Amino acid sequence: MQTKRYTKADQKAVVQILKSGGIVAFPSDTVYGLGALYGNLDALNRLKAAKGRDERKPIPVMISNKEQLAELGVVSDAAKRLADAFMPGGLTLILAKRPEVADAMTNGFPTIALRMSDDPWLCELIQACGKPLLVSSANLSGAAPGKDGASVLQQLEGRIDAIVMGETHGSLPSTIMDMSSDPPRLIRAGVIKEQAINEILYGK
Predict the structure, then answer these.
(1) b vs e for 38-61, b when ≥16 Cβ sit within 10 Å of the residue's Cβ?
(2) What is the pLDDT of residues 51-75, one digit of tens each?
(3) Which pLDDT score is estimated for 145?
(4) Distance of alpha carbon 159 from its chain centroid, rounded?
(5) C-alpha span between 199 and 203 (Å, rounded)
(6) What is the chain's alpha carbon radius of gyration, rounded to the nearest angstrom?
(7) Model pTM?
């Protein structure tokens, strides 16, 4: 397959590719993302195949507004405080998933990972798709995430349908907090530091 090149000005074309089950890489506020339309199992499987990703690992979901947190996950008071403080931004929250979320979208896990980007263009893209996006970092599994279009193509050329050329706003991935457990657990340190998280959760 030939990977098509686009710019942010080509948003309508990118939306159509995603809606038709395509896999698209794009810059974000953290690292380059690789997205597929939420709810499309075939597109999800193609995303995993493109990355060579472990089938057991679920793909995070990127939303366009904070209201979608409660549509897809169970939002505790603590999770709401973190969302209010750091969304949109470099925070991924793992929540217990709502019953209406298909098990296939979370690889059978009872939880779902949700993030809202601080990139207005990306939020507009997701909004235009009419559904959230399943988004992983744009790289082969185990390799370093791409920071610009050229570095992504070095790994994924011919493995994905399209790429939005550009550069990311940062070089670190999002911080992942598991809010489905008690107490909450830091799964991955990233853009948002643990101290900042603890200040919101515990006032220290």
Answers:
(1) bebeebbebbbebbebeeeebbbb
(2) 997 767 789 999 999 999 999 999 9
(3) 85
(4) 19
(5) 4
(6) 16
(7) 0.93
* Contact by Cβ (8 Å): 4, 161: yes
Alpha carbons within 13 angstroms on the beta-carbon side of residue 83 total 24
Query: Residue 52 corresponds to which amino acid?
Result: G
Written as one letter, the residue type at 12 is K
Residue 200, token pair as written in the block: 């919101």
Helix (H) or strand (E) holding 201: helix 194-202
DSSP 32-101: -EEEEETT-HHHHHHHHHHHT--TTSPPPEEESSTHHHHHHB---HHHHHHHHHH-SSSEEEEEEBPTTS
Look up residue 93 and give its two tokens: 């929250």
Tell me how far CA of residue 7 lies from CA of 14, 48, 194, in angstroms. 9, 24, 35
Distance (Å, whole) CA 106 – CA 119: 25
Report the alpha-carbon distance of residue 139 to residue 93 in Å, rounded: 22
* Total Cβ atoms within 10 A of residue 25: 28
Give the phi and the psi of residue 57 in degrees, each rounded to 5: -90, 125
140 Cβ neighbours under 8 A, 6+ residues apart: 51, 52, 155, 156
**Assigned token pair, 33:** 């993302």
Which H or E run includes 87?
Answer: none
Give the N- to C-terminal CA distance of the chain in Å, as an integer.
52
- Token pair recorded at residue 157: 């050329």
Residue 201 has pLDDT above 90, yes or no: yes
